[in-house]
Amino acid sequence: MKLANLAGRAVLVTEDGAADIARDSEGRFGPDPESVLARWDEFREWARAAALTPQSFDETLLGPPVSRPRQIFAIALNYREHAAESGFEIPARASVFTKFASSLTGPFGDIALVDGNVDWEAELVVVIGREARGVHVENAWDHVAGLTNGQDISERSRQLAGPAPQFSLAKSHPGFGPIGPWVVTPDELENPDDLEIACAIDGEEVQKSSTSDLIFSVPELIAQLSEVVTLYPGDLIFTGTPAGVGLAADPQRYLAAGEVLTTSIEGLGQMSHRLVAPRD
Questions:
Q1: CB–CB of 127/141 below 8 Å?
Q2: Most buried by CB count within 10 Å: which residue of 4, 7, 134, 243?
């Protein structure tokens, strides 16, 4: 099942197009994508037997499949090779920061750069579908609605400025949290713990790895986070980026206006964004 946000309305994407959930459920669900996630178990039961009427659609009208999460968690240094290229040892526990919801944007369109050094970070994003508190690793996938592509776009000058790093602010400018194009349920994937992830700039591949290289897997992240906080339906977890970011390149490389940033994860579709000059 693929849940998407088409011009602000919750839809299910099939091979034949997009089915409007509010229309096909006769008002039982939707049209707000967040309202579907709030009743995820009930919605999945309905969707299994629903008579859908998909129609062709314009992908450029897709917004972030989750646009108003209560919480956004992000994980630093969660791929072995990325930790190595950054000069850090493998962490013993997940290093967590937040992104702010105002940074979210859809899977296609323009992203305005800001002054400084703007970097890319392709990421697998987890969407929570069931409230989670004190979850054990072996039960963690039961709390996942689905997975989607993400980019944790980062302005490195602010991020690394002392005396304390500013991860959350540097990674939360408008448009610095694109996700999409849709949320894919884990049952659609042959192995949700082993998905190829890639990022390209103007067609040049800069990142390629597999989520099997995560230091802390999706279930481990949910277990660690839910030890401390309650996870709610619609919450997002940016699970970390693989090696190949611009900060670690020699010489360092950063995004420039006019470049096209493409992000893809096996089974989850693809995002494409054009970088534009900073806005006044």
A1: no
A2: 4
Nearest-Å Rg of the Cα atoms of the chain is 18
- Residues 94 and 196: their CA atoms lie apart, in Å, by 21
- The letter for the amino acid at 270 is Q
Which residue from 223, 148, 130 is spatially nearest to 189, judged by alpha carbons?
148
Beta-bridge partner residues of 172: none
Give the residue carrying structure tokens 């049209």: 31
For the chain, give the percent of residues with pLDDT over 70.
Answer: 100
Whether the CB-CB separation of 216 and 126 falls below 8 Å is answered with: no
Nearest to 144 by CA among 130, 154, 158, 155: 130
Instruction: Give the integer Cα–Cα distance in Å for 125 and 128.
Output: 10
pLDDT for 13-30, tens place per residue? 999 999 999 999 999 998
Q: List pLDDT tens digits, range 218-241.
A: 999 999 999 999 999 999 999 999
Q: Is 211 helix (H, G, I), strand (E, B) or coil?
A: helix
Distance CA 59, CA 239 (A): 25
In sequence order, what E strands does the chain have? Answer: 2-6, 9-14, 17-20, 62-63, 72-76, 95-98, 104-105, 108-112, 118-119, 122-128, 144-151, 154-155, 177-184, 196-201, 204-210, 236-238, 260-265, 270-276
For residues 79-84, give the mean pLDDT. 83
| Per-residue pLDDT tens digits for 51-76 | 999 999 999 999 999 999 999 999 99
